[in-house]
Amino acid sequence: MSLTDKTKPTDVSLNTDLYELTMAQGFWESGMVDAQANFNAFFRDNPFGGGFAIACGIGQVPELVENFRFDDEDIAYLSSLKAPGGGAMFKQGFLDYLRDFRMHVDVWAIPEGDIAFPREPMIRVQGPVIDCQLLETALLNLVNFQTLVATKAARVVRAAEGRPVSDFGLRRAQGPDGGLAVARASYIAGCSSTSNILAGKLYGIPVFGTHAHSWVMAFPTELDAFRAFAKSSPKNCCLLLDTYDVYQGIENAITVAKEMEAEGERLSAIRIDSGDLAKLSKAARKAFDEAGLPYIKISVSNDLDEYLVQSLLAQGAPIDSFGVGTKLATCDPQPSLGGVYKLSAIRTQFDEDWDPVMKISEQGYKRTIPGIQHIKRFYDIDDCPTGDMIIDDSVSEGESNVIQDILDAYSTMALPGTPRELMQHIVHDGVRTCEPPSITESRDRCRYALMHLDPTIRRFLNPQTYPVGLELGLAKFRGKLAQEERSGSGRN
Amino acid sequence: MSLTDKTKPTDVSLNTDLYELTMAQGFWESGMVDAQANFNAFFRDNPFGGGFAIACGIGQVPELVENFRFDDEDIAYLSSLKAPGGGAMFKQGFLDYLRDFRMHVDVWAIPEGDIAFPREPMIRVQGPVIDCQLLETALLNLVNFQTLVATKAARVVRAAEGRPVSDFGLRRAQGPDGGLAVARASYIAGCSSTSNILAGKLYGIPVFGTHAHSWVMAFPTELDAFRAFAKSSPKNCCLLLDTYDVYQGIENAITVAKEMEAEGERLSAIRIDSGDLAKLSKAARKAFDEAGLPYIKISVSNDLDEYLVQSLLAQGAPIDSFGVGTKLATCDPQPSLGGVYKLSAIRTQFDEDWDPVMKISEQGYKRTIPGIQHIKRFYDIDDCPTGDMIIDDSVSEGESNVIQDILDAYSTMALPGTPRELMQHIVHDGVRTCEPPSITESRDRCRYALMHLDPTIRRFLNPQTYPVGLELGLAKFRGKLAQEERSGSGRN
Fold first, then answer.
1. Shortest Cα distance from B416 to chain A (angstroms)?
2. A25 vs B249: CB contact, 8 Å cut-off?
3. Does B335 touch chain A (CB under 8 A)?
4. Which of B172, B336, B490 has its CB closest to that of A220?
5. What are the CA-CA distances from residue B132 to residues A236, A284, B21, B102, B370 (Å)?
6. What structural domains does chain A harbor?
């Protein structure tokens, strides 16, 4: 996306839904240019039936905010749009306003790479209501998918139990940005490398690759192909064995490995990309060991996900590394996080105080959390998180460690340990407060956070629910507000 | 992506898997710079359990080929890469070769918007083996997802039975490119508009939007919010009713509609985004009709897909248009087409004839089709396709209408009707042969093709299998080659 050197900054602002601009014009016309708003970006359920998500994409938010502006070409396009009922969709005065537009928001966020849980604000945006509204789509487009794919990658990496996992997903991603997002987020979440060269160039992620079946088929015999590859890439030689027959491929790899030894080189690895990977990897390991080639590593690929990786290792498959493509890049079987961005408080120029708001719905689980929120994450003595408390200082009952379940007004619990503020202030008045974390910093944070997350929450099947709740003052206020809104169809 | 005006052409070439470049270097070093290759891009199964796919992304292939080059920055990055075993990953001579690299391929493809079926070549690339190999990842990254999402969109549009369907998927897509790909492909497949403004600007797709819940929550009451929106956008006024209580929202919409009438305006539509859409849309229709406002249209959204749309209409829900986001943009529940790109023939500088090749595998369904193929699609007297024949002229038995099943060597059938060549020659020696079709032309072709596809093949549940098979000479040749390769682990 724009957030690489490859794009003109201008594209950031039109990478949005039409209604953001229609609403912006509405606010502009309704005398609300100076109204302040607070929006929260959050998701409602952990993806993949798991117990957590990895906050990702955050590191690119400051750049998005700073580059958000409309150039002449954008304005010309917007001025060309007609309303369905006739006339121009956008008024000249509003377009002039957009021409000079700069974002003046403040942004707080869970640090990139840290753990995020359902319904708590992952990102909080505060500032002029127009600015906040205009940021919605681009922000969600940036963090929804990266958070989802980072979470998927963390699961696959965990299943691999320390063995390297490489992202092979570019060809199944949604265009170049999709591929870059997959590579970036999965590296942050623990993948060791990517096949995507552009991601290597732009983000400094280690790149990895072997060869394709076409390489083998381009030569008269598989042995010819293996020899040619070993000659061309002796220091980076991983042979793909399943073009014709894996057992013959193993023999050919042994022949080439011995020839390489004679030249003072070593065949570093082989890859198997089809068939029964457990059976074939065992056969390969046995053959290589018997041939005195114990150093040849075994890599596998072919529609892998966390469950297949887990199953292969449970079968004792002697696999040294995994290439994971399609199911990582598409986050199969749950390709969307469903992250949303909801108004939680508004303050017009005539008000001194924030007016907290919430969305009600026939579907109770779509009910939002009102107010200006921040999060305290409690940690035990080993720095392991014990629960998150969502707080609105203006209605807080003060120091407490008791939270109320967001979905159940009768369920409360006390969080053990010591609280720390979770969200960081990353943008002030439209400008980054500091340099965003490097991808390596985000990766380190993620590793640390996952390591300290209770195993019962990390597990794939029926994970324990990590406690996230409302500080009691906020809980009471929310209950009251829901009743008022429901009866009045509005805030007052 | 690159294929808009927003990107420097250089990004095209590094938007690839490392192994493409490793192999390219290998071919370069193995004296195969002048070897010619033929690759086919195809998919193995129709997505979504359906009976067809829409070929999409093809219209952007010529630009991809023409812009494929490496600039100094790319070369500098590649020269910085180290091989795992030590030393530079790429040799200076090869990097010099890349510096002057231009694609010299020829490309044939099923026209964008037309129907494609499993295993037949959707795109055929022929030219120097290095060029063909380097194109693989970027080509798949371009056409895999667009073909998938076009197919999904065609299904949703069909379910809507003529009612407009708008793409709302940007916020759940994989970054800006993903959003653009969704908008472009779904418009080609029959969607009437998109919420994505950048797609509107770049591709000329009609843009559509209403307002969000945040608009309502930003005002003291829902009625205030509706009035403000009506005042700001009287010619483009669609009110969202489900922020607090839909029934109260209906009453408020009626109030505002009457006020608009007094001003000589009309409330064009309302939208419902949660709850029981069948029940609520009926309640809204009834209330509007009773209030003498039969012209107010009803639009719905909320995790819609083809099955939900179908179910709503089957229940008699009086819905006029659909906004489809998440499940369109992520192609839920099948987020990947699994499209591949396989070598099917090779010719070294010492050969006069092509050497057809095929990939065998433990998994029989991964067996490819060898040779230089083209497709004849047979049409009946009403221009409805009756079946596709895959032909390699060099082994063809001549005029015939009999095909053999690709997966079953014993099953043959005769195709009725008259054959026409399906694939078009879109790139010659690296340069487009003509201007790619406009997005409108692709859309018209798609509409025509779908209209003429047998309803038993278009249906969602257990569709009939459209006949695609091998011309008998190719079928025999393929059987022979499979046996030779299996026994010899190579082509000869």
1. 36
2. no
3. yes
4. B490
5. 22, 31, 11, 11, 16
6. 11-151+334-488 (3.20.140.10), 210-298 (3.20.20.70)
Contact A110, A55 (CB under 8 A): yes
Closest CA relative to residue B56, chosen from B193, B190, B159, B172: B190
Q: How close, in Å, is residue A5 to chain B by CA atoms?
A: 9
Is residue B478 within 8 Å of B470, Cβ to Cβ?
A: yes
Nearest CB to A492; choose among B20, B35, B220: B220
> What are the structure tokens assigned to A445, written together?
């944070």
Residues 161-190 of A with CB under 8 A from B: 168, 170-182
In angstroms, the CA A80 to CA A96 distance is 14
A window 124-153, beta carbon within 8 A of B: 129, 133, 136-137, 140-142, 144-145
- For residue B491, give the nearest of A77, A133, A220 by CB distance: A220
Q: Do B22 and A360 touch (CB under 8 A)?
A: no
Largest CA distance in chain B: 85
Helices (H), ranges, A243-359: 246-262, 277-290, 306-314, 326-329
Work out the widest C-alpha separation in chain A, in whole angstroms: 85
Half-sphere exposure of B331 (CA within 13 A, CB side): 34
Token pair 């840290």 is found at A114
Q: How buried is A87 (Cβ within 10 angstroms: 0-12 exposed, 13-18 middle, 19+ buried)?
A: exposed
Answer yes or no: do A232 and B30 touch at CB < 8 A: yes
Q: Which residues of A touch B21 (CB under 8 A)?
A: 197, 209
User: In this structure, what token pair is assigned to residue B491?
Assistant: 């082509």
Kind and range of the H or E run holding B124:
strand B123-128
Q: Do B29 and A268 touch (CB under 8 A)?
A: no
Inter-chain touch B81–A200, beta carbons under 8 Å: yes
CA A50 to chain centre: 15
Q: Rounded to the nearest 5°, which phi and psi values hold at B56?
A: -145, 150
Cβ pair A361:B87 closer than 8 A: no
B227 touches chain A (CB under 8 A): no
Q: Cβ distance B365 to B407 under 8 Å?
A: yes
Tens digits of residue pLDDT in B386-411: 999 999 999 999 878 999 999 888 89
Give the ipTM of the model, two decimals please. Answer: 0.94
Cβ distance B485 to A234 less than 8 Å, yes or no, reads no
- What is the number of alpha carbons within 13 Å of residue B260 lying toward its C-beta? 28
Contacts B208 to A, Cβ<8 Å:
18
Distance from CA of A358 to the nearest CA of B (A): 7
User: Chain B contacts of A335, Cβ < 8 Å?
Assistant: 330-332, 335
pLDDT in tens, chain A (492 residues): 333 333 444 478 999 999 999 999 999 999 999 999 999 999 999 999 999 999 999 999 999 999 999 999 999 999 999 999 999 999 999 999 999 999 999 999 999 999 999 999 999 999 999 999 999 999 999 999 999 999 999 999 999 999 999 999 999 999 999 999 999 999 999 999 999 999 999 999 999 998 999 999 999 999 999 999 999 999 999 999 999 999 999 999 999 999 999 999 999 999 999 999 999 999 999 999 999 999 999 999 999 999 999 999 999 999 999 999 999 999 999 999 999 999 999 998 888 899 999 887 666 677 899 999 999 999 999 999 999 999 999 999 987 899 999 988 889 999 999 999 999 999 999 999 999 999 999 999 999 999 999 999 999 989 999 999 999 999 999 999 988 876 655 654
Residue from the list A89, A221, A274 with its beta carbon closest to the beta carbon of B489: A221
- CB contact at 8 A, A335 and A305: no
* Chain mean position to CA A361: 27
Contact B487, A244 (CB under 8 A): no
- Taking each helix axis from N to C end, the angle separating B246-262 and B277-290, rounded to the nearest 10 degrees, works out to 30
